[in-house]
Amino acid sequence: MTTHPAKAAKTRFSLESICPYLYILPSLLLFSLFVFFPFAKTLFLSLSLTDQAGSAIDFVGLDNFRSVLLGSSSRDFWFSMGVTLRYAAMVVTGSIVLGLICAILANESFRGRGLVRTVFAMPMSISSACIAVIGVFALNPTMGIVNSLLGTNIKWLRDIHYALPSVAAVTVWMNIGLNFIFLIAALQNVDEALYEAGAIEGANFFQKHWHITLPCVSPTLFFLLIINVINAFQAYAQIRLMTQGGPGKYTRTIIYAIYLEAFQNNRYGMSAAMSVVLFIILFVLTLIQFKMEKKVTY
């Protein structure tokens, strides 16, 4: 018995059309379980009044959002947003600039270059919790190495003027490794002929990297800008372990405020609304960054 050619072709076409989806099915299941479902649940809770266990007990519409943005909780929310913006500005600028400087230096030819590259990339292999603990010991006002080297007696994590920059500095150290690895890889693809042409034209070290290196690695810098901004807005572990949002509220970033609202105040609906607002802010920032993409040289 033979199969009709048209029927066989139809069966083959069906299998070919379904096969790609079967390959991505495991990823879709994981994303659905750990990304899409939590996001949908957050949206649902943001429109609901919840009990102390976090279960929705009544639909309240946009009341949670009005309270977060304009109502009784708006002052704390916008204060935390301001803290987050200052923290993100310090972390993103410091991480990318220092990562680029380390990459440029490690890309030069010198003895022991491999060891230097390993040292620069090493913070990437250390968890944020471990780096936060190291930062707490280093910034200890009595036994910390920072005060010992500077000859000062500053309470770095308890002073309202130094607490946020101190946490930001520790985060910069934590992020340098990631930025360094991407940028050193980008520098490997820069054509040496461009540097040779620059040397013939009399360009010095700084002119060479300003006019040649930066345009050539601009796609990587653009990618790192987006990643670093998102990571800075999502900072939690270092805040939790180093300052617990103090002194006062001067290091209470938006993520830590969301945590406190949910797990200390037991207001899960408000916490979910704050999470949705944060998502919208990050989405808008990402769109603005992509609008700047025309300045990137590919």
Topology of helices and strands:
Layout: H1 5-46, E1 48-50, E2 56-59, H2 63-69, H3 74-106, H4 113-121, H5 128-138, H6 145-150, H7 163-188, H8 192-200, H9 205-216, H10 218-233, H11 237-242, H12 254-263, H13 268-291
Antiparallel strand pairs: 1-2
Helix content: over 70%
Average of per-residue pLDDT values: 87
Instruction: List segments where confidence is low: pLDDT < 50 over at least 5 consecutive residues.
Output: none
Elements, N to C (H/E): HEEHHHHHHHHHHHH
Which word captures the global form? globular
Largest sheet entry: 2 strands, antiparallel
> What's the multimeric state?
single chain
Number of distinct helices: 13
Kindly name the structural category.
mainly alpha
Commentary on this structure:
This protein is mostly helical. 71% of the residues lie in helices and 2% in strands. A two-stranded antiparallel sheet has the order 1-2. The longest helix has 42 residues, at 5-46. The model has no long low-confidence stretch (mean pLDDT 87).
